[in-house]
Design brief:
The complex is a heterodimer of chains A (453) and B (90). Chain A is α/β, with parallel strands linked by helices. Chain A is built from 15 helices and 13 strands. Chain A has 2 domains: 173 residues, Alpha-Beta Barrel (Anaerobic Ribonucleotide-triphosphate Reductase Large Chain); 232 residues, Anaerobic Ribonucleotide-triphosphate Reductase Large Chain. In chain A, the strands form 2 sheets. In chain A, strands 1, 2, 3, 4, 5, 6, 7, 8, 9, 10 and 13 form an 11-stranded mixed beta sheet that branches. A two-stranded antiparallel ribbon of chain A has the order 11-12. In chain A, helix 8 packs antiparallel against helix 9, helix 8 runs parallel beside helix 10 and helix 9 crosses helix 11. With 90 residues, chain B is an alpha+beta fold. In chain B, helix 1 runs antiparallel to helix 2. The chains are: A alpha/beta (453), B alpha+beta (90).
Chain lengths: 453, 90
């Protein structure tokens, strides 16, 4: 039996603490679209997506209205294009990205992810074409997102790809310089990428998934922060308990939305992603949760410990609330998409190096960080290699989404707009070169899984 | 399906009359009402039941009540009860 207090609490979470379902993402397999002729392939892709997701947006809007819970985005993820388009006789996959863009716009989704390649062990011909096509694809499309998985705990790190991705990110920044290098905000470089992640820019429909699937990503950092406001002076166990209970409630809403969406669309339910996804709005910040725990500013010593507790408690609370949990599940720490992170960078409290430490315990990695436009490709590759190493050794997903904004220096602020927010340029403190290390290429061997010191 | 109707706004004559009339016209049965006035502000939470296969769609009922509420300076929300059930019951 629900009480009036329950009703008021839920509605307060939605109206005051910005509780929302961040995304309903429909995964669509494109494995049955392959064709040697790229035009025919693009047509097959367009047809399958528009047929499969015809009612996705409408269904999301109906559920949003009926339950009174905002569902911010409706998205699509597809089979990594490097796999689906591998048999095409072509030297560029840009037309495929354009077909994805058209299809996504036709059904009205906010993003479509899967312009991707999985190359942790090596490249196929299709992988090479895809990676080469990324800059142009990001420049000529609006809602297509790209990701490359270049490392895993089982396979090690593909350092040839690490080297290439530094160059690709630089070239994308150059081609999209008129929009503050926005193209780079749509590229993620992963280690241990999951195939059921509903969040962008890294969503793709994994090769072991079914034909279609509904994955849902929840949100709600503001709700967690609000719950902690009543716990002044409480010890850490009590904080963790409260986070667990709050995460449970948030996830139950996600599970309800996912179940309804799957039923109405006639598509199997995949997973709930338990992530706390912030926005640049005041009151919707992961950094502010850490500060509520007692840190004067996010980035102060103790931040990694606080984040570790938050990340773990979110998972523990969410796991019981959903029948299937997957994706990235944890606390995101994107800088430009989190008002508290932005403020911490502006105050000089949070650096890219501290963020790197935080990625050892958060759900993903270095995310939405604007850096100086003249940062070299080798330095970006070095950042990617470090992040991939953290993921590989710790058996977790890590990622890099950095944006070298042409012409911008430390002290400038870059505006991306919408959910992508805004970001002060974050300094890369070491001015020394990684070039000779990155130029070596090859593979970092898979790590030993015992002797874990 | 069961619905939760929440009404918040400045107190005035006819809030419950208007709401219950509109619900009755749409074949929605009121199951319980919890209401109070705090500092001149009217707060009401109502549980109601709507026929599963009736002619009225929930989204239409929401629009009608919202529009009526705005005329009277009230914020009226209608939600499917399940969102509260899943969040507060295991």
């Amino acid at each position: 039996m629900i009480t009036v207090d329950d009703i008021i609490e839920t509605n307060r979470m939605i109206t005051e603490n910005k509780l929302d379902v961040r995304t309903i993402t429909m995964g669509i397999s494109l494995r049955d679209c392959s064709h040697p002729n790229i035009d025919q392939f693009c047509q097959n892709v367009y047809d399958k997506i528009t047929r499969s997701a015809e009612f996705l947006v409408k269904t999301g809007e109906d559920i949003e209205a009926e339950y009174g819970i905002p569902i911010i985005h409706k998205r699509i993820s597809v089979t990594p294009i490097a796999i689906a388009a591998d048999s095409c006789h072509t030297d560029s996959f840009v037309p495929v990205a354009e077909a994805l863009d058209r299809a996504g716009k036709a059904v009205g989704v906010n993003f479509i992810g899967g312009f991707s390649a999985l190359v942790e062990k090596g490249f196929t011909h299709g992988d090479e074409i895809l990676i080469k096509s990324i800059p142009q694809a990001m420049a000529t499309t609006d809602i297509v997102c790209s990701s490359v998985n270049l490392g895993s705990t089982k396979a090690g790190i593909n350092m040839d790809c690490v080297r290439d991705m530094g160059e690709i990110i630089k070239r994308t920044a150059e081609l999209t310089r008129d929009s503050q290098a926005l193209g780079c905000a749509k590229i993620v470089v992963f280690c241990n990428a999951p195939g059921d992640n509903p969040f962008m820019a890294g969503a793709f429909h994994g090769v072991s998934e079914g034909d279609r699937v509904i994955n849902v990503g929840v949100s709600g950092p503001g709700v967690v922060k609000h719950a902690l406001e009543d716990l002044k002076g409480a010890d850490c166990a009590e904080i963790a308990e409260t986070i667990k209970k709050t995460a449970f409630k948030i996830t139950r809403v996600g599970q309800l939305v996912a179940r309804e969406a799957a039923k109405r669309l006639g598509v199997p339910f995949g997973i709930i992603d338990l992530s706390l996804a912030p926005t640049a709005d005041v009151g919707d910040s992961v950094a502010r949760i850490l500060e509520e725990m007692g840190l004067e500013s996010c980035g102060a010593p103790g931040t990694t410990a606080a984040l570790a507790m938050l990340n773990d408690a979110v998972k523990k609370g969410g796991l019981m609330a959903s029948s299937h949990v997957g994706g990235l599940s944890g606390a995101f720490i994107p800088v430009s998409e989190d008002e508290g992170m932005i403020s911490a960078v502006q105050k000089g409290s949070l650096s890219i190096e501290k963020l790197e430490a935080m990625t050892c315990v958060c759900s993903v990695g270095l995310d939405m960080i604007a850096i100086e436009g003249d940062t070299s490709a080798a330095t970006i590759s070095g950042i990617i290699a470090d992040e991939a190493a953290i993921g590989m050794i710790n058996n977790k997903t890590t990622a890099v989404r950095v944006i070298p904004v042409p012409g911008k220096k430390v002290g400038d602020v870059v505006e991306f707009g919408g959910l992508l927010g805004y970001c002060p340029i974050v300094p890369v403190r070491s001015q020394y070169s990684s070039a000779a290390f990155i130029a070596r290429g090859g593979r970092i061997p898979a790590p030993v899984r015992s002797l874990t010191n | 399906m069961k619905l939760v109707v929440t009404i918040v706004g400045k107190d005035r004559v006819g809030i419950i009359a208007m709401t219950s009339q509109l619900l009755a016209e749409n074949d929605v049965n009121i199951l319980s009402i919890n209401q109070n006035i705090m500092d001149g502000f009217f707060n009401m939470v109502m549980i109601a039941e709507m026929p599963e296969h009736g002619s009225m769609r929930l989204t239409d009922l929401q629009k009608n009540l919202k529009a009526k509420g705005e005329e009277m300076g009230l914020d009226i929300k209608v939600q499917h009860q399940d969102i509260f059930n899943v969040m507060h019951n295991i």
